[in-house]
Design a protein that fits this description.
This protein is mainly alpha-helical. The protein is built from 22 helices and 6 strands. The protein has helices at residues 2-12, 38-56, 59-64, 75-113, 129-150, 156-220, 223-236, 255-264, 274-295, 301-319, 325-355, 368-371, 403-417, 421-433, 439-468, 470-488, 507-516, 530-538, 548-587, 602-630, 634-660, 671-696; strands spanning 15-18, 23-26, 239-244, 247-252, 496-503, 540-547. The protein has a two-stranded antiparallel sheet. The protein has a two-stranded antiparallel sheet with strand order 3-4. β1 and β2 form a beta hairpin. α16 packs antiparallel against α19 (548-587). The longest helix is centred in the first third of the chain and has 65 residues, at 156-220.
Length: 698
């Protein structure tokens, strides 16, 4: 049967074996690929190839005897050679019907539409010859490719033919669409800018991937599965999202939409073919090419944040369907580039506005800035105009806003403008990039910026100390550190890292030992290798833990302690000085009794506490006013003032103890003077506590 099949089928596929098979003559095939018996003839040839291959030993034996172009004495080996020739001739018929037809159709479309010199308008692309002509040849091609796909297990030739068809198809489609897609990307950028272009271009590419996948499945998909899926979708009346041009709209129970969806969502997974995915990636790379060129010139953080946000949203849509994964991959690549540019610009801004910041006199014009009398340049233009953040006061732009709300907004803006510029820059930048960069990257940027901001605040406090005094310097530092800690809390970050540095301090000694060693083993493959020893002994890794949040808390604690110390001294400095003298006198070695010290003179003690009581109302009022100026929350003011009161109370207790040791009749002390001094001390304590109560009751 197989011998007869090989002798009979040769004429059908245009192959003649002359001179006893030594000469192979190819002519016009009588068998057409559209004939009903084409698949049957191809099956007989495959059966003959399998039969004779098993009889003679297969291709290995054929190659040993000169290959398929030589005549063989063995009957089974000779007919195996002839069967392979017939198989190649039959597959060539399929190649002519598919590959050559795709090439010819592509050439015809390019000639008619003047491609690629003249791109096609995006809104007319799906109705153009680029799709209609290919849809016209898809049915016949799919029938032949189905025959090839079902026989992939029979011979490697079928796999090679299918790969050739895929590569030819993808190359033709890319040639037709590449310039059109690029031209549309450039047009969108010119019309809508970079931010608007990213959204519209992403929608366009998602749609392009969808229709390209549908067309690809018309050629290479399983028609039976698609027909089954189509009938199920039409019976169910499934609603399908259709995107035309740059818009999105829902079409329910539309046969065309259902057909497209059934093709795109077919279960055979044909759209996962590597060649086709590479083709889609090449088309989608036009978006990356256009956006990347635009990103290079963008330095505005708001614009970059908007681009990343838009692309993330569009990537989510592209990830919803397995057929648009190429668009999702392209968008992901652009997101990485945009984030890289955003991180660079954010670091550049922080480096300029925080790390290398040099304050002007108006930047540290405290308390005038808080009183509104400073000549500071308004910074409203530098405020965050992108996503709302906890650091930027919201601006109500509604035409129906009342005058009261406008006043409140202006008050918030004035508060924001009164912040020290480096801290304002840190919070502004962090609030913008928080949701558009990776968490680990954000935390690293935040860690470095908080370190630099804390250092800048300390340096600014030193300048305020010289200009306005110690209390203003302390309150300046406390105010900004409190705000910084409060504004960082919504980010929920640890601000911890481990820094590693190479230590070359022992390198000189290691090199000396290396050179002194005359028995160096430079090529030894062991731990005794001289070069390995040199590196091990000369270079070490030093690790250090960095905790910006802890450093911030320490700086705030230190600032509060300084304020408490300085405020206590300002309010009751004479009392603390008296107590300190008494302590020194009582602890002096060989200094005699405390009653012998000049500091225990009755009139002197009375003058100290009387002076303190007389100055107390003015100084307390000044301190509370300064605290109200820097710290808006009365609760914070009360918390900060309580340690001052406790410290003054402890000083009063110590003073009572020392006064109690005095003896009537010595150093002008008597019962009346002691009672008068104690009453003055009681009045001082009462005044301080009353001031704290008034502050907490606000």
């Amino acid at each position: 049967k197989h011998y007869d099949a090989v002798d009979r089928i040769g004429i059908l596929v245009g192959v003649l074996f002359k001179d006893g098979g030594r000469t192979v003559v190819r002519g016009l095939a009588k068998l057409k690929v559209d004939n009903d018996d084409f698949a049957e003839v191809l099956g007989k040839i495959d059966d003959a190839v399998d039969f004779f291959g098993n009889e003679c030993g297969g291709k290995e034996v054929l190659e040993l005897h000169g290959g398929k172009d030589a005549q063989h004495s063995s009957g089974s080996l000779e007919y195996y050679r002839r069967a392979i020739v017939l198989q190649e001739a039959t597959l060539f018929l399929i190649q002519e019907a598919v590959v050559d037809r795709i090439k010819q159709t592509s050439s015809d479309v390019q000639a008619v539409l003047k491609l690629p010199r003249v791109p096609i308008a995006a809104d007319k692309l799906e109705a153009s010859l680029v799709y209609t002509r290919f849809h016209g040849i898809s049915s016949r091609s799919n029938m032949l490719l189905t025959i090839v796909r079902k026989r992939l297990h029979r011979s490697e030739s079928y796999g090679e033919l299918l790969t050739l068809c895929r590569n030819t198809y993808c190359g033709a489609r890319e040639t037709l669409l590449r310039n059109t897609v690029r031209a549309h990307m450039d047009k969108l950028k010119d019309q809508h800018g970079l931010v608007g272009m990213t959204r519209l271009a992403s929608v366009f590419l998602i749609r392009l991937c969808t229709v390209e996948t549908a067309l690809y499945l018309d050629f290479f998909g399983d028609s039976q599965k698609r027909q089954k899926s189509t009938s199920e979708n039409q019976d169910g009346g499934e609603a399908v999202v259709m995107m035309r041009g740059d818009t999105k709209k829902k079409t329910a129970n539309a046969p065309a939409a259902a057909t497209l969806a059934s093709q795109v969502m077919s279960e055979d997974g044909t759209y996962h073919d590597a060649e086709f995915q590479s083709h889609l990636s090449a088309l989608c790379s036009a978006l990356h090419r256009t956006v990347r060129r635009g990103l290079v010139s963008v330095a505005d953080l708001d614009t970059l944040c908007q681009i990343v946000s838009v692309l993330r949203e569009e990537r989510g849509l592209a990830n919803n369907s397995p057929t648009t994964m190429a668009a999702a991959r392209a968008i992901s690549t652009i997101i990485e580039d945009a984030q890289e540019r955003l991180i660079f610009c954010a670091n550049a801004a922080l480096n300029k506005e925080v790390t290398r910041f040099r304050p002007t006199p108006s930047d540290l014009d405290y308390p005038a800035k808080l009183l509104g009398t400073s000549t500071t340049t308004p910074v409203g233009g530098t405020a965050n105009t992108g996503n709302p953040s906890p650091t930027t006061p919201p601006v109500n732009a509604s035409s129906e806003s009342s005058g009261a709300s406008n006043d409140a907004v202006q008050a918030q803006l004035r508060v924001y403008e009164a912040w020290f510029p480096p801290m304002r820059s840190v919070l502004r930048v962090l609030s913008k990039i928080f949701r558009v960069v990776e968490p680990r990257v954000f935390e690293d940027i935040a860690l470095q910026s908080v370190q630099s901001c804390t250092k800048s605040l300390k340096e600014g406090s030193a300048v305020v100390l010289q200009k306005a005094g110690v209390i203003h310097a302390d309150l300046f530092l406390v105010k900004h550190l409190l705000i910084l800690r409060e504004q960082l809390s919504p980010f929920d970050i640890q601000l911890r890292a481990v820094e590693r540095q190479l230590d070359f301090s022992e390198a000189g000694k290691a090199v000396t030992r290396f050179l002194a060693n005359r028995n160096r083993r430079l090529f030894s493959m062991s731990n005794e290798n001289a070069l390995v020893t040199l590196l091990r002994e000369g270079v070490s890794v030093q690790e250090s833990s960095v905790d910006s949040k802890r450093d911030l808390e320490d700086a705030l604690r230190s600032a509060c302690n300084d304020f408490i110390e300085h405020t206590s001294t300002t309010v009751a400095g004479s009392v603390f000085e008296f107590v300190e003298h008494c302590k020194q006198g009582s602890s002096a070695v060989g200094g005699g009794s405390l009653k012998d010290k000049p500091c225990m003179e009755g009139e002197y003690v009375k003058a100290v506490f009387t002076y303190t009581l007389d100055q107390l109302p003015e100084k307390l009022s000044e301190v509370t006013q300064q605290m109200s100026l820097y710290l808006e929350n009365p609760a914070t003011q009360s918390i900060l003032l309580k340690p001052v009161i406790r410290k003054i109370s402890r000083a009063m207790e110590d003073a009572r103890r020392f006064i109690g040791e005095s003896v009537n009749g010595e150093h002008s002390w008597n019962t009346e003077l002691r009672a008068e001094v104690l009453k003055t001390m009681h009045d001082i304590e009462s005044s301080v506590k009353n001031a704290a109560l008034k502050l907490s009751s606000r």
